[in-house]
Amino acid sequence: MNMLIFGPNGSGKGTQGALIKKKFNVLHIETGVIFRDNIKKNTDLGNRAKIFIDRGELVPDEITVPMILNRLQEKDCENGWLLDGFPRNLAQAEALANALNEAGIKLNYVIEIVLAREIAKKRIMGRRICAVDNNHPNNIFIDPIKPLQKDGKLYCRVCGSDQLGVRADDQDETAIDKRHNIYYDRKTGTLAAVDYFRGLTNPIEVDGEPGVEEVSKSLLARLS
């Protein structure tokens, strides 16, 4: 089963992707990892991508798409894959669809986790990172995972640590807005890519506002 997953920063896309991977025994592929692996292995595409990355520029689609396609054709993807982080815009969606078609690779589902922009932003800014284990979920704006509070101080809801911090980029409203401007753009941005793939394969749309368990239950039921 081959899938694309979309959702704005703050929607819990990574968490749901991990659950899908476990449930269906498919590979969860993130484009950032593909770039790093190619650069580390000194592949031709990796070396070409590194030139743009070192300049702080976006890697052109004519490098990115073949790199992704190569990864999807590796042996460990035979049971299926979940591609996360690509495409980010309409042009990339069209390029990826053409590449998959030419390679004879079928896309079974396109998943969209729907979340209002302001809620997504609050969730990003509400993250609190546990110094003991940064996988302990704490968020001051999500009721099921709110940190514990005592005498005006916050404590990790999982381990009780009083060492809760924030990531600088989670508090950078300008950076958050910039990423969300791209995602929520229905003309040429990421939501335009989602709409494009809706017409090509089975679309699954789930509400990202409820808690993780509720979203997971709804999503996995649609995939079963």
The biggest beta sheet, please? 5 strands, parallel
List how many beta strands DSSP finds. 9
> Could you say which structural class the secondary elements and strand pairing correspond to?
alpha/beta
- SS summary, helix count: 9
Radius of gyration: 19 Å
CATH C-level category = Alpha Beta
Shape: globular
CATH-level-2 architecture: 3-Layer(aba) Sandwich
Q: Low-confidence spans: pLDDT under 50, at least 5 residues?
A: none
Please describe the structure with a list of short key phrases separated by commas or semicolons.
9 helices; 224 residues; alpha/beta; two-stranded antiparallel sheet; five-stranded parallel sheet; Rossmann fold
Task: Please sum up the structure shown.
The chain is α/β, with parallel strands linked by helices and 224 residues long. It has one domain: Rossmann fold. 45% of the residues lie in helices and 16% in strands.
How would you explain this protein's 3D organization?
The protein is of the alpha/beta class and 224 residues long. It has a single domain, classed as Rossmann fold. Helices cover 45% and strands 16% of the residues. The protein has nine helices and nine strands. The strands form three sheets. A five-stranded parallel beta sheet has the order 2-3-1-4-9, sandwiched between helices. Strands 5-8 form a two-stranded antiparallel sheet. Strands 6-7 form a two-stranded antiparallel sheet. Helix 2 crosses helix 3 and helix 2 packs across helix 4. The protein is globular. It starts with a strand and ends with a helix. The mean pLDDT is 94.
